[in-house]
Amino acid sequence: MDSQAKIQGTEKLEKIWTRDFVLICLANFFIFLGFQMTLPTLPIFVKELGGSDQMIGIIVGIFTFSALLFRPYAGHSLESKGRRFVYMFGLCVFILSVGSYSFIGSMALLLVMRIIQGVGWGFSTTASGTIATDLIPAKRRGEGMGYFGLSGNLALAFGPSLGLTLAGVISFSHLFLICGGMGLAALLLSSQIHYKKVEESPNKAAVPKFDIFEKSAIQPSLLLFFITVTFGGIASFLPLYATEKHISGIEFYFLVYALFLMISRTFAGKIYDRKGHLFVFLPGTVLVFIAMILLAWLPNITVMLIAAALYGLGFGSVQPALQAWAIDQAPSNRKGMANATFFSFFDLGVGLGAMTFGQLAFLYGYNVIYITSAGSVMLSIVLYLYLLIKTKNRSKGLAN
What's the helix, strand, coil split of the chain in %, to 5? Predict the structure, then answer.
């Protein structure tokens, strides 16, 4: 009986789908829905205001750099001020900034509000990933982060196509108010979560009062950087590229991408938990690489949708595995900072990609964006193999 009770107790401890985990997933869904609705529509809005491809890159990129700049503050605040304060603050800033787009008529003001939105996004997404980490059993972290990622993937399935559809029937002013309303729904849901209290750690005294990254998370975060460069090219320029190629149905790209992203979440995390990142990273990055080559070619909608499926499977497998890797290596009192580091590299990849690709599109055309993206993915693969060999050689050296 005692052994049976212990088994039952272990099973209870290993449970992922608790009330609070469901709430953080729902809150994450709504904030991502509001964000994803702006992703393909904001470049069109910039064009309407008279902006160029270069300005689209700047508008997209400045948001991610703003988020990048404030993520270290978010990471430290998670450990010093608590999860609730950071998350609620980030959500409030996001709601006010996105809602303000409804009243913007100049490029300069849009640029300022994008910077402010980046602050809200940096705080809210760093906090939500850390809160989810708190709620997931350590032995099931890869699987749990995959499920948590599904909430954002569901938003991705509906957000871009919903935003594009609404932009065709209502004004941008009303569209951005709706996007802000999605953030408000996230805020209401997040207010019902029981948050982990900030605990004092005996190792805290050894940690500097302020730093900008968690060193144990650098390797997976750097690998992520080279992959998320591709995301900047897709999110910012694919709708315009498809229009130039006279390919309709761009909203189906985002639907197919999200569908296969969700499919990947059902098995990739479990593979990571059981076999490690080797069995997830290499297959996933190869799929992303092929997707970029197909987008550079892009003769018709069929090829575009095949690229969407491959990109969804690849990115959906790699991203949660790398995030779980970053968190697993961090000390218990540095999980928030590990998440901040991870998403900082995510932002840096998207931001640099968007800004660089805006210039490339202006000089050479849209297809060069995806050729360059394929090269970035290849760099990630090469770096991973180098780190793998280096780690194995170090292990052999210690054994001898």
Answer: 85, 0, 15
